[in-house]
Design brief:
The chain is about 35% helix and about 15% strand. It is an alpha/beta fold. The protein has one domain (about 1-310): TIM Barrel (Alpha-Beta Barrel), CATH 3.20.20. The strands form 3 sheets. An 8-stranded parallel β-barrel has the order 1-2-3-6-7-8-9-12, surrounded by 5 helices. The chain is globular, with a radius of gyration of 19 Å.
Length: about 325
């Protein structure tokens, strides 16, 4: 289902919330427009992203698009509470926005309903298609998410308020626990199935394949190290400066890609789609140029020999499935 509905590529909304640097309102709209023009129909956001700014911008940019052709996901687990004393400060969690709101963890049934109502208002829509429970990392949060947040979303799914529900996290072991404890439709996995980290092969991905749970792969550039043709010292891995060993691995991978006449970012985008549980790769973009580049790389032909050479070099694991060869330009990123 989700492979057909979401398409191969989605647009991640964190940069639209001014992740690390400001994006203008016009620039955010232009980025969403470029994604739509490239065939993208799946758009992911969250209250966490820019303290609601990403949701407001995404809703405004999609306001005049056909709603029945669009899949929008948002998240619950962090309530936004007004903080009048914070307006003169900048948010401390990586977003270039005033700290006029503060995040409050809440995986309760009441918190879920309130969070979703607030998100619908910011998005300016009467429904979202997918709701993820966002980052229940600590064991107590995980248990409350399974005990309270998930059953609340399941009732909303039964009432057809939302179409699909799941979890969004960057810890594959925690996601595997949640998939085993509940019955999600899909999960969003950030950073744990990439050219440099295939840890999800040990727990989450085989479980999702057996249970029929779809996986949206995000963070496939590992926050920057895999985003350029030639990784440089000082590039980030999971939002921190990458160590010398990781940079060296990324550089070796880039050299192998160059030997096959392709680029490292193209391999990073397409690699997760080789696993049968992965239905979509969602990429955060902050400009039309980034959208256009990523859409092009998502459909670039990558030779089968590339994956074998990356496997021989120890970049990807021997049990990591290889993507099927894809003809250059064959199908838009959001094509079904």
């Amino acid at each position: 289902m989700f492979g057909n509905q979401l398409g191969r590529m989605g647009l991640g909304g964190a940069p639209l919330g001014n992740l690390f640097a400001e994006v203008s309102d016009a620039g955010a709209t232009a980025t969403v427009d470029a994604a739509w023009d490239a065939g993208v129909r799946y758009f992911d956001t969250a209250p966490h992203y820019g303290l609601g700014l990403s949701e407001r911008r995404l809703g405004e940019a999609l306001r005049h698009r056909p709603r029945d052709e669009t899949w929008i996901s948002t998240k619950v687990g962090r309530l936004l509470v007004a903080d009048p004393t914070g307006a003169a400060r900048t948010d401390t969690e990586g977003f270039a926005v005033p700290a006029a709101w503060r995040r409050v963890w809440d995986f309760s049934a009441e918190g879920v309903r309130r969070s979703l109502d607030d998100s619908l208002e910011r998005l300016g829509t009467d429904r979202v298609d997918i709701v993820y429970i966002h980052d229940p990392d600590a064991p107590a949060q995980r248990e409350q998410a399974a005990r309270e947040a998930f059953p609340t979303l399941a009732r909303l799914r039964e009432e057809k308020v939302v179409s699909a529900i799941g979890y969004g996290m960057n810890h594959s072991d925690a996601l595997a626990w949640l998939v085993g404890a509940t019955d999600p439709d899909l999960v969003l996995l950030a950073g744990r199935y990439s050219l440099l980290d295939q840890g999800a092969l040990d727990d989450l991905l085989p479980l999702c394949e057996r249970r029929g749970v779809a996986v949206v792969a995000a963070g496939v550039f590992n926050s920057g190290l895999l985003a350029t043709d030639r990784p440089r010292p000082g590039a980030t891995f999971d939002y921190r400066p990458a160590g010398a060993e990781l940079v060296e691995r990324a550089q070796r991978a880039a050299g192998i890609c160059e030997a096959h006449g392709v680029t490292l970012p193209a391999a990073a985008i397409q690699f997760p789609l080789g696993h049968p549980a992965v239905v979509n790769v969602t990429l955060g973009c902050r400009s039309p140029a980034e959208v256009e580049r990523n859409a092009r790389l998502a459909t670039t032909e990558l030779p089968a020999g590339l994956w074998e050479d990356l496997r021989t070099a120890g970049i990807i694991r021997g049990d990591a499935p290889s993507p099927e060869p894809r003809a250059s330009g064959a199908g838009a990123p959001g094509a079904t």
